[in-house]
Design goal:
3 domains; globular
């Protein structure tokens, strides 16, 4: 498959890998990311240190939020009290006492991972340390603060599960077969069966 990457105006991409047939919209910024095949990203999006799977549909104005402040036990949330490298130039500590960045994969320095066939609506915010499972849907303007199960539908601030796309047995079936890993010719020849789960299951029952 020839790798085709289409970009909008004033799009900035640095130290990122694309698997092919991708689109990144106007004014979007990607740094240190991996993007699976057939995934498109809308305008004004920001992704940093993120793994994005294949066949994802990402609307405009979706952003990764990197960094957190202590909220429960510390008297102040200001980094001067817990970071030796405070941006204001003044720190009251010589040691870093709080992990501001949460990783889904610390070895690879990944702060967010997004599965395959994920649909993310307009204006979504995703906090660092979050994994979004395969097939999930994130509703418009949601703020995702914790992991999202495969094929779950979540929405709200903070995002909560409001439904799921299929029943548990059907979800297990789809996760076992991982259609997004099949070659494009197979997908093209069987695209008619993607209209509903029962049609898709028959592809494998007949064999």
């Amino acid at each position: 498959m020839r790798k085709v990457i289409k970009k909008g105006f004033f799009t900035r991409i640095k130290s990122s890998r694309f698997d092919g047939n991708n689109f990144v919209g106007h004014l979007s910024h990607l740094h240190d990311c991996t993007v699976g095949r057939m995934t498109y990203i809308g305008s004004r999006c920001t992704f940093v240190s993120t793994d994005i799977g294949s066949f994802c549909s990402i609307a405009a104005d979706v952003r990764i939020i990197a960094g957190e402040h202590p909220a429960n036990t510390w008297i102040s949330t200001h980094p001067a009290f817990y970071s030796s490298n405070c941006v204001t130039g003044v720190s009251f500590t010589t040691a870093n006492k709080y992990n501001e960045i949460k990783y889904v994969n610390e070895e690879r320095r990944r702060i967010v991972s997004i599965g395959n066939d994920v649909w993310i609506g307009f204006g979504v915010r995703i906090l660092n340390g979050v994994h979004i499972g395969d097939g999930a849907i994130i509703a418009t303007s949601a703020v995702v603060t914790k992991d999202v199960e495969p094929y779950a539908i979540v929405g709200g601030v903070p995002a909560k599960k409001i439904g799921q796309r299929f029943n548990d047995q059907e979800i297990s079936f789809l996760l076992d077969h991982k259609w997004w890993n099949k070659d494009l010719e197979w997908i093209k020849n069987n695209a008619h069966a993607f209209e509903e789960i029962e049609k898709y299951k028959k592809l494998f029952i007949q064999r």
